[in-house]
Write a structure and sequence with these properties.
300 residues; alpha/beta; TIM Barrel; 8-stranded parallel beta sheet; 8 strands
Length: 300
């Protein structure tokens, strides 16, 4: 079984669309250049931020491949391979592996909630089909699946799941896994407003949509808290960053991140319906928060 230990801040990236609503593949390279040159450590494509539920199978494969190519040799590339069926996840995982992705992120099927035995079978079948590390996308609000710390550890022992992105918001559970099961599974923070706490508890990596438009601040926070152990410096940075994270969690997340990349001059087009773009009044508020944090705003 191939294993991978991710480190740093990985940006949960958008899927750029052109004026006609088609996937903008050249725009992906611009996103990666901005993120990795700016101080983040990798990208995670076609997750919730990447509007994967609005993409066709071919579009999702193409977006994952483009992000993997652009990040190759420069940072981690994790490709979203979540789908409603095991066969579809296997197909996406095979394509991501062929494209050179370092790992795949797979959310449990999100209509009928799986019990734990079904979950083990789902990830086990994917692991048998493709030898690539899997990031389990813990998103109980959408999937109805809420694992215990011991179940996370068992899932990792029995499949290719080597880490999980925690978008559950339960900091006590995250702490338990970090402290009690470090040899079984890597716990990564994926809840924006808990980024400081997650890193301070010992998470070696985080998946963070905000790194798509403020990679410098994201990288500095990681260096201060996770690498240097300088909590005083981390708190200074977090005082600037936290209001932005609170804002993001107060709006449709994909729309807010797309607004963010546009505001810093790296436009990725609109969201796909039914998701609506951020209203101008909220964009103006967002721009003010970014300026207050020292982020250069060049769009509106």
């Amino acid at each position: 079984m191939t294993t991978l230990h991710l480190e740093g801040i990985l940006a949960a990236v958008v899927t750029p669309f052109d004026a006609d609503g088609k996937v903008d593949l050249p725009g992906i390279e611009r996103q990666v250049d901005f993120i990795l040159d700016g101080g983040a450590h990798g990208v995670v494509s076609t997750g919730s931020t990447g509007e994967f539920t609005s993409l066709s199978m071919d579009e999702q494969k193409a977006v994952n491949a483009a992000y993997a190519r652009a990040a190759q040799g420069r940072g981690f590339a994790v490709a979203g391979a979540g789908a409603l069926t095991t066969d579809a996840s296997i197909e996406l995982t095979e394509a991501a592996a062929d494209a050179g992705a370092d790992a795949v992120m797979i959310v449990p099927p999100f209509y009928d909630a799986l019990n734990f035995d079904e979950l083990l079978a789902h990830y086990g079948a994917i692991s048998e089909a493709v030898d690539i590390p899997i990031m389990y996308y813990n998103l109980p609000s959408a999937t109805g699946v809420d694992l215990t710390p011991a179940q996370f550890a068992q899932l990792a022992r029995e499949t290719n799941v080597s880490c999980f992105k925690d978008t559950g918001g339960d900091i006590t559970k995250l702490a338990t896994i970090l402290l009690d099961y470090p040899d079984d599974i890597d716990a990564l923070n994926g809840w924006d407003t808990l980024t400081f706490e997650g890193l301070a508890l010992g998470a070696k990596a985080g998946v963070w949509g905000g790194a798509s438009f403020m990679p410098g601040l994201a990288g500095q926070l990681y260096q201060a808290v996770a690498v240097d152990g300088d909590l005083a410096r981390g708190r200074e940075l977090w005082k600037l960053i936290n209001p932005i994270c609170v804002f993001l969690e107060s709006h449709n997340y994909a729309a807010a991140i797309k607004a963010g990349v546009s505001l810093v001059g790296n436009d990725a087009g609109s969201t796909r319906r039914p998701i609506q773009p951020l209203a101008q009044e909220h964009r103006d508020e967002f721009a003010s928060l970014l300026r207050a944090a020292g982020v250069e705003v060049s769009g509106r």
